[in-house]
Specification:
Layout (H helix, E strand, L loop, with lengths): L1 H16 L7 H49 L35 E2 L9 E6 L6 E5 L9 E3 L6 E3 L17
Antiparallel strand pairs: 1-2, 2-3, 4-5
Length: 174
């Protein structure tokens, strides 16, 4: 960027040394071209700054994605997620049929985290009232089965929450 600024300064110096009348068309043209070149140089500098910022952001996203992939795959190479895997481990004891496996994005939670007799739950969003409700996983026979919403008492399809249909919270900002 400094080289470009130096070259534009050199061109302005040449224009000044040409001994043109300030009111002549040639002087006006050359001065306007030098001004345009300075404008381009400024815009290029701004674009470089924006590109650097964008590159830093993409690298940050890439690192976060690698951390998330490592956590999902159970890879313990990254210390950022150490100890968090235990909270989200899927219990696969063959009791439930395979089409609700973790590969489909289904997250199973427990209805009673402290007891050994707890029942895993799967969540869905009511298509009538828009509220989240849960169904014990062992009661789910097939996807899109009708259930009574506990909020609005209407029959609705049970579509397990996954990455493509789960409501995502946004950070609170005042």
């Amino acid at each position: 960027m400094t080289k470009l600024s130096e070259q534009i300064g050199y061109i302005r110096g040449i224009i000044g040394s040409m001994e043109l009348a300030p009111d002549s068309n040639n002087a006006k043209l050359l001065t306007a071209l030098a001004d345009i070149l300075e404008g381009f140089a400024g815009e290029i500098g701004d674009l470089r700054d924006d590109l650097t910022e964008l590159n830093d952001f993409v690298e940050s996203l890439d690192e976060d994605l690698e951390d998330l992939e490592a956590a999902i795959d159970g890879d313990e190479r990254d210390a950022d997620f150490a100890g968090e895997d235990e909270e989200y481990e899927d219990e696969d004891d063959g009791e439930y049929d395979g089409h609700f496996a973790s590969e489909s994005g289904l997250r199973v939670i427990s209805s009673d985290a402290g007891n050994s007799g707890s029942r895993p739950l799967a969540g869905s969003i009511c298509t009538e009232c828009g509220k989240v409700f849960f169904v014990p996983l062992d009661e789910i026979k097939e996807e899109n089965e009708l259930y009574t919403c506990p909020h609005c008492q209407k029959p609705v399809d049970f579509t397990p929450l996954g990455p493509d249909n789960a409501p995502i919270a946004k950070p609170y900002r005042e």
